[in-house]
Design a protein that fits this description.
mainly alpha, Arc Repressor Mutant, subunit A, 3 domains, 3-stranded antiparallel beta sheet, 7 helices
Length: 191
Amino acid sequence: MGPSIQPIPSGRVARCPPMSREDGPVFIRRKFTIPEPQDAVLVNLADRHYQGNVSLCLRAAIEDHRESLNGQGKLATQRLAGQVDSIRIQQEEILDEITEIRGEILEVPQDEIASSKRLGMSDEMWRLYSRMNEAKRPLRVDDLIEQLELPLSRVQPALGQLIDQAYVVEIEEGSHRYGLPGYCQTGGFNE
């Protein structure tokens, strides 16, 4: 015979007579109210899944909700999967835009870029830029000094401004070799 449930003192909570740990958990009777539509849903769920046992249905719902709030369970997994799908779609859109931009860059001839009104550069900047465009390969600062016959005091600031304005990049960090963006050492655009 199962444990008896005692009347609820003061209308709040009643504990069943204590059971030993071997018998299972201690049950507490709670008094609460829910709207009729939710009660109908509860009774329907209990009938369909818990042989009409409303208490068992509520306990299962509480456990499921606890797992969801703690980031476990099917609902949390579904939310996470939805977020991953959303990020994947955004990533695909960004990659498509990058591919489109890369195609547009490849369509513009470098000599057309170089000849377009000196791009607002000082004489030293223009000479460095033009030399790098002609070289079609990365150059060291010493190479620029030697080939342009300019002192370091004029090459270094001009190179810094070209880098700041993204006309020139250091090919590999720490390499101290500079070239036009998009060119690799063989003289073509990076794929």
